[in-house]
Amino acid sequence: MILATTAQIHGKRIVKNLGLVHGNTIRALHVGMDIMAGLKNLVGGEVSEYTKLMGESREQALDRMVDDAKRLGANAIVGIQFSTSEIMNGASELLAYGTAVLVEDESN
């Protein structure tokens, strides 16, 4: 599966637009992480616990989006974007979305 944040893929031609696809995950914070993040906030620096949590969330949302595209018969997704929102205090959603397409080499 080819994934692109752009509307086109160099060397490929879009032959069919299969529609919007998405994947999401909702993650809640762990009390221990919150305490560590609070301490890190006092002294500064990267909050690595949250960095890891967001990385895992992005991968899960992307995997779910790819599964959605595969169900439509796509071999690529273009225009990929991410969105986040707070669902409730301590829980956030990460959404990945794009357009599922069929592509072929430009030389065909």
What is the radius of gyration?
18 Å
Terminal CA distance: 19 Å
Helix content: 25-40%
Secondary structure tally, helices: 2
- The dominant shape is elongated
Proportion of residues in β-strands = 35-45%
DSSP summary, beta strand count: 4
Which consecutive residue ranges, at least 5 long each, have pLDDT under 50? none
The quaternary organization reads as: single chain
- Classify the fold: give the CATH topology: Translation Initiation Factor IF3
Summarize the model shown:
The chain has two helices and four strands, in the order ββααββ.
Description:
There is one protein chain. With 108 residues, the chain is of the alpha+beta class. It has a single domain, classed as 2-Layer Sandwich (Translation Initiation Factor IF3). It is 34% helix and 44% strand. The chain has helices at 31-43, 48-71, and strands at 2-3, 12-28, 76-88, 91-105. It has a 4-stranded mixed β-sheet with strand order 1-3-4-2. A hairpin with a 2-residue loop joins strand 3 and strand 4. The chain is elongated, with a radius of gyration of 18 Å. The model has no long low-confidence stretch (mean pLDDT 87).
